[in-house]
Structure to design on (183 residues):
């Protein structure tokens, strides 16, 4: 086909312009062998994403494994034992610790409750190094009146990675522990 009319980018004057003409979609595969036709039909089929994900035994195994792992993670996160929180006489107690500027800050939170009298709370906070050696400890005594209470302390040592707190009130004791989060 000879070029006529307006100039087309990329073609010299008098150069033949390459043009593709396809009528119906099936005409270009009319003379193809059977494998090519089957492959083309398989790719253009509307079987959906899950069909392709579950097409081979290996992909089925991988999908089932991923689903099982997600279920296990969800169950352990919901049911798993949280060492940094506990309950004493229907009162929630939580321990948190973080480091900032080579100082470790530890905080024990006692949630509000229905208690209407002043009760002494004793808390012994112990901090440990990487090899689980006791680095330091501190005793804190305050009075709990039913309002939210925070027992806070700090330690000057950047090697501390683990905090443990023994909280006692109303003749019961609970031991809480947590890792020090780096900030």
């Amino acid at each position: 086909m000879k070029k006529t009319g307006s100039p087309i980018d990329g073609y010299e004057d008098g150069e033949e312009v390459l043009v593709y003409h396809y009528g119906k979609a099936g005409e270009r595969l009319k003379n193809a062998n059977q494998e090519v036709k089957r492959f083309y039909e398989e790719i253009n089929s509307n079987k959906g994403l899950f069909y392709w994900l579950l097409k081979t035994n290996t992909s089925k195994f991988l999908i089932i494994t991923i689903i099982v792992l997600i279920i296990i993670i969800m169950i352990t996160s919901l049911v798993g034992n949280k060492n940094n929180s506990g309950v004493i006489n229907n009162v929630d107690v939580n321990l948190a610790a973080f480091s900032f500027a080579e100082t470790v800050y530890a905080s024990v939170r006692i949630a509000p409750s229905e208690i209407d009298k002043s009760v002494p709370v004793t808390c012994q906070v112990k901090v440990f190094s990487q090899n689980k050696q006791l680095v330091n400890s501190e005793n804190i005594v305050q009075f709990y009146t039913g309002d939210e209470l925070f027992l806070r302390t700090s330690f000057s040592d950047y090697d501390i990675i683990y905090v443990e707190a023994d909280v006692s009130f109303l003749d019961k004791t609970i031991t809480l522990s947590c890792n020090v989060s780096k900030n």
